[in-house]
Design a protein that fits this description.
It is a single chain. With 143 residues, the protein is an alpha+beta fold. The chain is 37% helix and 17% strand. The protein contains five helices and six strands, in the order ααβαββαβαββ. The protein has a four-stranded mixed beta sheet, with no helix packed on it. A two-stranded antiparallel sheet has the order 1-4.
Amino acid sequence: MLTGKDDLERVASRDRPAELMALLKSRQVLIPRRPRRFLDADEFSPEQLSQLLKHEAQTMTECEFEPWILEVKGKKRLPAFSSEKRMANFSRKISSETNKVFALCAGMVLLPEFIRNSDVDFVDLNACSPQSWEICVTRFDSK
């Protein structure tokens, strides 16, 4: 970690798509679960907010996994992260932009398998981090 990058970031930064896709076939990434609700932090004491977020996180882990797919300019974008640290950057930025807080939970998946069964146009790898990558999802008609 001398460069501050993890294995996935090192491969992605080489700008060799085939090498990145080969790694993603064996290296799991974090996909955030869609938050159940967004809370206004000003309406609660820190203790109340902590309790609410813990309860939300527990409830989310008991429910069926639903990925947090963002719609930006009419395109469906799936955030994916190489580490919890990178996912925390995303959470902080979304909280800052919306002025809301939310419980953030994630699932570990192999990205190629996951997107095969998902309706997304792009994957944003390490969204909101100092360096991120956009992966366009191409679908082929099987007819």
